[in-house]
Amino acid sequence: MESVRLPVVNQSGYYEIRLESIGGLGANLCGKMMGELGTKYMGLNSASFSSYGSEKTGTPVKAFIRYCEASKDIRVHSPVTTPHLLGIFHDALIQDHGIFSGCNSDSIVVMNTENNLEDPCAAANNIPSVKCVFTVPAQKIAIETHSRINVVMLGAMAKASGFIPIESVNKICEETLGRKYPQTLSNNLEGIRRGYNEVKRVELTLTGRTEISSEKETEAWGYQTAPIGGVNPRFGSSVISDLSASRQGYFPFFLKERCINCGLCDSACPDMVFQFQKGEYRGKEMMVNTGLDYYHCKGCLRCVSVCPVQALVKGVESEHPDKQWFLPNQDLIRVPDYYEAAGPDGYVTSESYLTEKRIEGGEI
Ligand code: SF4
Ligand code: SF4
Questions:
Q1: Is the full-model pTM beyond 0.85?
Q2: In terms of CB atoms within 10 Å, which end of the chain has fewer, N or C?
Q3: How far, in Å, CA of 291 to CA of 256, rounded?
């Protein structure tokens, strides 16, 4: 097999890729596929691995891929700190400037977003001055093609990289996803095709953007430089983390007029989204569902499944940018970046969930 020529390598001879994502968007699998296609279809040597916390949807996930010439061994097994290609699986992640860590003037950034980053008011000021930025509406394409965000991003990153052939991407998709989920193969191939064709390079103004420091490559992590215990310093927690980045285009749409305040959604929801407060329903005093704190909602749609009267339905999020019943958690106060307990109950024994009467009888 003829080897693909790498456009650039670092001092150690590697082309390095880092994927920044949130559990549930498929970055782990995408990283594995990128690693495998390097070895199987591009005549390169490659390695890949991911870093994630619990299996919980919504926690930070990073995937790392290294390519080098087939004749060279890969002796580095630490995370990629200075990526040549950075894939960002959700635009909410760019609020955390740390995701651009190590990017330099050789770096290419590919971002899943529907926002126009060329708009001077856009969040683009968070993006450092890298070699170039590409955007692709991966979530929208995934919904339209019934594929997943990860395959659309795979197609987009292949195009943006300038050296990963789409034929190789299709082959690895057929071999991995096609074998496991043959019924969805055509959807996934279409997702790849559209990601490849619809990714576009954006021209960003430099005003306000962070200049790249002239620092040399950061030292690779080893036993002397790795964080203690391999702890992921960007912890995930359903109380302080913004889980909205986990939603894959859908969210629970609340039709308050149908709600009978049965509380099943609150019991099913793993992330304290529902805001029950003392109120009145059909002339009776009881705990009433007053809204959802969508900041915590990861879009699993369990609540939609359990609601007995379809007061919660599956909605396409982009069609509802202003959520009518978006109510910040009433037991906690969110001060810019975190929550504080607002009363004696706090989030652990949320009053809306654990009042004695509800445990005994379910209804006051
Ligand atoms: S979709 Fe429903 S159950 Fe899932 S996190 Fe959001 S509110 Fe909770
Ligand atoms: S499950 Fe449905 S009816 Fe019951 S409280 Fe939740 S939204 Fe209302």
A1: no
A2: N
A3: 8
- The secondary structure element, H or E, covering residue 135 is strand 132-136
Could you tell me the distance, in angstroms and rounded to a whole number, from the CA of residue 79 to the centre of ligand 1? 32
DSSP state of 203: -
| Smallest-distance ligand from the CA of 293 | 1
Q: Is the CB of 271 under 6 A from ligand 1?
A: yes
The model's pLDDT over 194-231, given as tens digits with 9 standing for 90+, comes to 999 999 998 776 554 554 444 444 556 666 766 665 55
How far apart CA 289 and CA 291 sit, in angstroms, is 6
Helix (H, G, I), strand (E, B) or coil at 315: strand
Give the separation between CA 30 and CA 23, rounded to whole angstroms. 12
**233 CB contacts (<8 Å, ≥6 apart)?**
227
User: Are the C-beta atoms of residues 91 and 139 closer than 8 Å to each other?
Assistant: no
- Please work out whether the CB of residue 58 comes within 6 Å of at least one atom of ligand 1: no
What does the longest C-alpha to C-alpha distance in the chain come to? 78
Share of the chain above pLDDT 90, in %: 48
User: What is the amino acid identity at position 20?
Assistant: E
